[in-house]
Amino acid sequence: MLDYRLLEALGAVIETGGFARAANKLHLTQSAISQRIRQLEFLLGQPVLLRSTPPVATPMGRRLNNHLQQVRQLEMDIEQVAQNEPLQIRLTVNADSMATWLAPALASCELSARMAFELVVEDQEVGLDRMRNGEVMACICSEARAVNGGAVRALGVLRYRALASPEFVARYQTRERPEHLVEAPCLVFNRDDQLQHRFLASQGLPAPRRQHHCPSSEGFVKMALAGMGYGMLPELQVEPEYRAGTLVEVWPEASLDVPLYWHYWQTESSAMKALRQAVTTHAHQVLVQPD
């Protein structure tokens, strides 16, 4: 039988990205963390971490961390009865969900007052990697296929439009000459963000050649309003600006729908089930629902 203190050390290194930070998280010395990892590897007869910067879990390390996440799910129900400590909930979410619909969804869970959320922000197209590596208890992303040991529920569609300031559209004449979008400055959230590329591809155009990287949903909107570039923006986030005409479409009636899914472990605690149901109910009310 595995010693769960060893698994907790492994999980802390993976979650925090380093031995020193894992030691701080578990209130241990860095030497104690290293010793527990070595002991785990000795018991298994194989490495669980690649000693890179940051450390990377091996396939066995990912399997063990997945197992640890599912055990934590089951422990939640016991902790609810045994103590009054807040429930630590670690979720992977995309920034645009945080900036638009997610906060009321989390708050709508009747148990949210007893939860302590740690939200890990990742692009909706890559966020499931955190779940696959066993780093989080649930994940909101655009991938429909569940990870091993997990399940998935559809939330709805976040609709994006390619928007910019009226002055930007006039300057680059994007409505008359959509091919100008390839050379015009384009706003991109980060290097994982492919929405703008997908939009251009849907119009038969190559990838944008000039990009501004802005890893902030609010900053993204401000840069578009200032005429710095065009970008794919969620309708939910910019409805007032769109209605007022301070943000306009660079190409008429062109939108991009991104489906969102809630991923969770099959060994789901009652608290996580309540959270999933609350988030799903709220999402179905505010997100576009496919026919």
Highlighted features:
291 residues; Arc Repressor Mutant, subunit A; D-Maltodextrin-Binding Protein, domain 2; 2 domains; two-stranded antiparallel ribbon; 12 helices; LysR family transcriptional regulator ArgP; LysR_HTH_N
Question: What do you see in this structure?
Answer:
Keywords: DNA-binding, Transcription, Transcription regulation. GO terms for molecular function: DNA binding; DNA-binding transcription factor activity. There is one protein chain. With 291 residues, this protein is of the alpha/beta class. 44% of the residues lie in helices and 21% in strands. It has helices at residues 4-16, 19-26, 30-44, 59-82, 95-99, 102-107, 128-132, 166-172, 195-202, 217-225, 235-244, 270-286, and strands spanning 49-50, 56-57, 87-93, 115-121, 138-141, 150-164, 186-188, 211-213, 231-234, 248-249, 255-265. The strands form three sheets. Strands 3, 4, 5, 6, 9, 10 and 11 form a seven-stranded mixed β-sheet that branches. Strands 1-2 form a two-stranded antiparallel ribbon. The chain has a two-stranded parallel sheet with strand order 7-8.
Round the mean pLDDT to the nearest integer and report it: 89
Dominant shape? elongated
Query: How do the helices and strands follow one another from N- to C-terminus?
Result: HHHEEHEHHEHEEHEHEHEHEEH
What CATH architecture of the largest domain do you see? 3-Layer(aba) Sandwich
Q: Cα-atom Rg, whole angstroms?
A: 22 Å
Residues in helix, %: 40-55%
Structural category is alpha/beta
The name of the CATH topology of the largest domain is: D-Maltodextrin-Binding Protein, domain 2
Family: Belongs to the LysR transcriptional regulatory family.
InterPro entries: LTTR, LysR_HTH_N, LysR_subst-bd, WH-like_DNA-bd_sf, WH_DNA-bd_sf
Keywords: DNA-binding, Transcription, Transcription regulation
Pfam family, one: HTH_1
